Amino acid sequence: MLGVIERRCGQECGTLRQVIVMQPVLEINIPEGFDLWPVARVGRFAFLSLNGELSSAEVGTAMARIIGCNDIDPDGDRPPRPADPVASFLHGLLTFDHLYAAGGLRVIDRSTGVAFLPGCCDGLEDWRDWHAFVDGGSLLGFGHEPVSPVAERFGDTVRLTVNVQQSGSPVIELSVTELRRLLADAERDLTDFLALATDWVGRQMPEHSDPVAVALARVLDLPAPAVPLKP
Q: What's 58's DSSP letter?
């Protein structure tokens, strides 16, 4: 199941569903026995769509994955890990200059069932590369063998090839105008997720809420959320 989230179209299409959708997604891979906070059951290496409608457990899953992507032992000038388990897990997220989140933007053509998925060289933190592509790029690659998703622009048409290594690979074609609208939808989903996750962090780990919210905004390449001033 791709778990496509239904979305309302703009006024120009009334209540009809969009044929092509773009979703920010995380590739989930959480260790067995994770117990720092409640998480939802998501298949290993399945994609979780990020938006403002996730349950608390799904937000917990997303946060565990994002933090886990940056959970690397300190080296160089970085301070040592704290002893507290949660603070230790957060250490990479709060001290790395360059943050990473496995995933990217997924495009689904509902009319054909074709799904263009993030590749092995993709990361959710790089999602704005799509803007550079649509504003004048000719090719954007997301991976290498055995699966190489590629976006190409031919004038006002964009072709998304699921795997250029495969002869006769499925493709999705859409206009540049449509892609711009899809990117706006994806940014709205990310912004809604950031607000939801910021609220979750405030309840789940209030002692770390401000720095974690700022770091999460960095991962998502979004403006940092407003946080209340502490007395």
A: H
**DSSP state for residue 138 in the 8-state scheme:** S
Identify the CA nearest to 65 among candidates 96, 36, 108. 36
Scanning 18-74, the segments in alpha helix (DSSP H) are 56-69
CA-CA distance, 61 to 42, in Å (whole number)? 8
Selection from 192, 181, 222 nearest residue 19 by Cα: 181
Cis peptide leading into 146, omega within 30 of 0?
Answer: yes
Give the sign of the dihedral formed by CA 1, CA 109, CA 129, CA 212: negative
| Closest C-alpha among 143, 179, 145 to residue 159 | 179
Q: Domain spans of the chain? A: 16-219
Q: How far is residue 152 from each of residues 9, 34, 121, 136, 158, measured CA to CA in Å? A: 25, 40, 17, 11, 6
Q: Are strands 150-154 and 157-161 parallel, antiparallel or unpaired?
A: antiparallel
In degrees, rounded to 5, the angle at the alpha carbon of residue 34 between the alpha carbons of residues 28 and 35 is: 135
> In which region does residue 201 sit, left (phi positive, over 0), alpha (psi from -120 to 50) or beta (all else)?
alpha
The three-class DSSP label of residue 159 is strand
Predicted TM-score (pTM) of the model is 0.88
pLDDT digits (tens, 9 = 90+) for 136-176: 888 999 988 888 999 999 999 999 999 999 999 999 999 99
Residue 171 in 3-state DSSP?
strand
Beta-bridge partner residues of 172? 160
Dihedrals φ, ψ of 178, to 5°? Answer: -65, -40
User: For 200, phi and psi rounded to 5 degrees?
Assistant: -60, -45
Q: Contact, 7 vs 21, CB < 8 A?
A: yes
